[in-house]
Amino acid sequence: MINTDEAALRCDFLETYHILDYRALPARQAALFACGLGIRSRIMQKLSGMQTDLHTLLLALIGDAARLLVWQNTEDGVKGRNRPRSIVDQLLSGPKETAGFDSPEAFDAWRARMIGGDNDA
Asked: 32 with 64, same domain?
C-alpha cells in the first residue's frame, strides 16, 4: 500500500483512525489497521482500480435510469434524439478537460463556454 500511494494511505489513517503518523505504530499494528480500511478508502479504491466508490456508482446508475425514463416520454425520446449523457460514463471516464485560470475573466469565459455559450469546447 505504501508503494502504491503513501499519501492516500496517510489520509485514510488520519480520517479513519485519527492517526497522524502511522510510522510511529508497531509494524504489525499498522498492517492490521491498513487491512481494516474499507472499500471506500482512498487506498483501497486505488488498489482495486476503481475511479469512484460503489455507493456513488450505484447512485449514478439510478440517476441515469431516471433520466432515461423521463427522456423516453419526451418528443426527443420518441424520435431517438438528444439522449441524455450518462452520469456513469462521465464518472468512469474521468475529467475530459482540466483548466487553470490567470484571472476571474478567464474563468468567466470558460464557464460561459461550458454552460452553453459556445459549443467549441
From this structure: no
Task: Provide the domain limits for residue 86.
Answer: 54-114
Q: Which residues in the chain land under pLDDT 50?
A: 119-121
At 121 the pLDDT is 42
Are residue 106 and residue 59 in the same domain, yes or no? yes
Q: Are 47 and 4 in contact (CB under 8 A)?
A: yes
Asked whether the beta carbons of 1 and 43 are under 8 A apart, the reply is yes
Rg (alpha carbons) of the chain, rounded to whole number: 21
CB neighbours (10 Å) of residue 38? Answer: 10
Give long-range contacts, CB 8 A cutoff, 24+ apart: 26-34: 34/1, 34/9
Residue 121 domain flag: no
Prediction pTM value: 0.54
